[in-house]
Design brief:
Thrombin, subunit H, Pdz3 Domain, six-stranded antiparallel β-barrel, 26 strands
Length: 502
């Protein structure tokens, strides 16, 4: 390399070095300059982190207090399945491949029966030293065998003592010898818990035993969720997943204020919305369930519907409040109290009525034989009547729509009302027995079948229907069918309509 070239290369290298050194000096100066980012994190201020540490310790204390009384519930059921099969051992394809043509048609297919074991898992909580355990009804429904595992890994056979399917509550009990000094939970006051309160959920999500998650009470009084017949759920964002069902939702005092029951999700796992049965609803039923007694519910004897703005104007109300009585059953508590079709119930036992489900739940929780003040609006005037609540039986359930039946109607896109004398006159219908269609959702299965507003359904699946509850029961019973045959009357003429259920 010539002297000139060597000097040029040295100059370039020196320039690069000086440029790099200058950049490094600027960088270090910037790090040390006032206001610049520190080279390392400073010390932790104890006064800042202390509240967080206290909250963490509180969570740990509550979890340690409740976890010993939380159990895992294992269930097993044996079912017999039938699978049709061709009489040849390897089926039709084997016959065609080796013999050509079609197999003989005069041999009936064989029915192959085999048994399959279905296993499930949930959670529960120990209520008393006698080994009674609170869990969800759907965790132990129609099972052959139940086992519970305590927090200390001990396993025991268990049996069902009492159930209430309408609220999804069940009591099971450890069989045989019950361990001494069983840890138990304490049920708190779910009504005293405001929205925003911190809570912990404990259970076995996805089989992961003794899992604790944290969140808040997102809402109270959630109904129309479609999980149970009677709903008054606490809503929480504490993560709960399959396996959490039957486990406790706990306040920061270590009291159980709810039983985790369901999640709202389209993906089969937690999506931020969970539901728990409030402890106060459970406590009201416990004395009977622990004894294996049936829950008896009150009955008013009316068919009611939600008030709308249009209905409010028709019945002389300035705003859509209360619920409208569309039918009063014969010899019912409502009829004996003087309640009439067209009345609007605005208060029940001193509580303001805002929805059909709320009134239904209030009545059902009233002991039969109780005298209750019912405030109504009739022709724009306020009246207070006294009703002696009756007993709800299988034959008088028409006093309120079933959750399952109402869900079917909603999926079909139908809004209906039991036909009354006044409604029959409005529709020009002579026969006053049937269910009038008041709304048909656009693009729904009902609309596709050709059902119209004003049609009166008189038969469903070849059964005569005279009430909304009757129609709901038929549709709920046919939910696994592809079609249901309806007979309706329209403008004085009768016609059959095939309603697709799916």
């Amino acid at each position: 390399m010539s002297p000139a070239s060597r000097a040029k290369a040295l100059g370039i290298a020196l320039g690069v070095a000086l440029f790099t050194l200058g950049g490094l000096i600027v960088f270090v100066a910037a790090q040390r300059a006032p206001g610049g980012p520190p080279l390392k994190a400073g010390p932790i201020d104890p006064s800042v982190v202390a509240p967080a540490e206290q909250l963490g310790r509180a969570f740990a204390m509550v979890a340690d207090h409740v976890k010993p009384a939380v159990v895992s519930v294992y269930s097993e059921k044996t079912i017999t399945l039938t699978q049709p099969g061709f009489p040849f051992p390897f089926g039709d394809d084997f016959f065609r491949q080796f013999f050509g043509g079609q197999p003989p048609q005069n041999q009936a297919p064989r029915q192959h029966e085999f048994q399959q074991h279905q296993r499930g898992m949930g959670s529960g909580m120990i209520l008393d030293p006698q080994g009674h355990i609170l869990t969800n009804y759907h965790v132990v429904r129609d099972v052959d065998d139940i086992k519970v595992q305590l927090a200390n890994k001990q396993r025991f056979e268990a049996e069902i003592v009492g159930t209430d399917p309408k609220t999804d509550v069940a009591i099971i009990r450890i069989k045989g010898h019950v361990p001494d000094d069983l840890p138990t939970v304490t049920l708190g006051d779910s009504d005293a818990l405001p929205v925003g309160s911190l809570v912990l959920a404990i259970g076995a999500p996805f089989g992961l035993l003794q899992t604790v998650t944290q969140g808040i009470i997102s809402a109270t009084g959630r109904s129309d969720v479609g999980i149970a017949d009677y709903e008054d759920f606490l809503q929480t964002d504490a993560p709960i997943n399959p396996g959490n069902s039957g486990g406790p939702l706990v306040n920061m005092r270590g009291e159980v204020i709810g039983m985790n029951s369901a999640i709202a999700t389209s993906v089969g796992q937690f999506a931020g919305v969970g539901f728990a049965i409030p402890s106060n609803m459970i406590q009201a039923m416990l004395p009977k369930l622990v004894k294996g007694e049936k829950i008896v519910r009150g009955q008013l004897g009316v068919v009611i519907q939600q008030m709308t703005k249009d209905l409010a104007r028709q019945f002389g109300l300035t705003e859509p409040k209360g619920v409208l009585v569309s039918q009063v059953n014969e010899d019912s508590a409502a009829g004996q109290a003087g309640i009439k079709t067209g009345d609007v119930i605005v208060r029940y036992d001193g509580k303001e009525v805002s929805s059909v489900r709320q009134l239904r739940d209030l009545v059902s929780s009233t002991s039969p034989g109780t005298n209750v003040k019912v405030e109504i609006m009739r022709d724009g005037k306020a009246l207070t009547l006294t009703a002696t609540i009756g007993t709800q039986t299988a034959s008088n359930l028409a006093a309120g729509p079933s959750a399952e039946g109402a869900s079917v109607l909603s999926k079909l896109g139908l809004t209906v009302q039991t036909l009354t004398s006044d409604l029959a006159r409005q529709l020009g219908v002579q026969d006053e027995k049937g269910v009038a269609i008041t709304e048909v959702d656009a693009g729904s299965l009902a609309s596709a079948a050709g059902l119209q507003k004003g049609d009166v359904i008189v038969e469903a699946d070849r059964h005569a229907v005279a009430t909304v509850d009757g129609l709901e029961q038929v549709l709920a019973g046919a939910k696994n069918s592809d079609q249901v045959l309806l007979r309706v009357t329209r403008q004085g003429a009768s016609l059959f309509i095939v309603l697709q259920m799916k």
